[in-house]
Amino acid sequence: MKFIFDSDSWQEIFGSIKKSKLRTAITVIGVLWGIFLFITLLGSARGMENGFEKNFRNMATNSIFLWAQRTSMPNKGFQRGRRLQLKEQDALAIQREVPEIAFVAPRNVSGVFGDAPARVKRKTNSKTYKLFGDYPILDNVNKVKLFNGRFINNTDIQEEKKVCVIGEQIVDELFEKGEEPVGDYLEINGSFFQIIGTYKQSSTNWFEADDSILIPFSTYRKIYNMADNIGWMVIAADDDADIVKVEKDVKTVLQRRHNVSFEDERAFGSANFGEMISRIKGFVTGLKFLTWFVGISTLIAGVIAIGSILLITVKERTKEIGIRRALGATPRKIKGQIVLESVFLTLIAGILGIIFGGLVLWGLNNAFGDNDNFPFVNPTVNIPIAIGAVFALVTFGTLIGMIPAQRAVSIRPIEALREE
Known about the structure:
By secondary structure, the protein is of the alpha+beta class.
């Protein structure tokens, strides 16, 4: 190990690098690019994973959106093409008969599925917005991002209160800058509603963007004379439940209640959010695997390039090595110097690659980290992984350096001196 701290060894290494600057630079860039790619891709994959977790952490990811459609086949005397209507009793039956169900949130809306939106007035301003009738349980299934006030509660439902929660866009359009919306009133379809909360747009809001108004379900039912009808429902299953099986069981309950054939797959429409999340997680896992594969392959390719360059260097320095051997340099010292040069180049390239990769991830985080609508948060690489990558580089550099080192010491001094 003495030769590591021997100034003569380092002078010879730097002298060798000086003689072939371009070749050495290209070689270092090859390794640098490998670890840079590895760090950047792995950090980006982590950023996407963190982004999805952030966007969906306030939502029951193992959930289903379900609505009624038309039957596609006759059953028990009912004709094909019968229009179905979901009822509040359906939601209660699903909750009761499917044990894996955690929450069922019935919902009604105007202004989304082709029907007329609500006419909203404040002072001299008049606009139309989407209007939702909701239960407080919605906040358990899909967390509403309130930035002021509160959400609908059970008292609002029981007393059929005329209260509402409005989106940020409505605040901007109907209120002057500096005005406080909470506590104020809006005229919605001719009735006055008190604003109890305001919310921000979220990437998990599938229907209610920040141009929507949320009112108690019971109040919506009363002003629109909906009786016990519901537009659709959001169903959240337990985290460990098989969401595909839950969806099938829910539809079986509804098919039985509405006299629909069990073979009719079109009678009830659904969007399986849990299955979609599983696919997203699978994609992120695949991306991480691809990152490891591409990164390690590129690293190995770069280290092999270093070995190739050192083989050429050994060939060019054959006469010099012969002279050193003739003057008493031991094979171990010759071999150690070449291996040291290989390790030095891989270590420098690895450290630079990690630094540049970290700078790119820092830039990406600044560009996308605060964007709620883009799933990219805190793209980082664990320190043990970065250290492990450098250690792997040094190991590969040592092993690959043994090839030209062995080539150097295998040359007999007399033959080396004859080399032209």
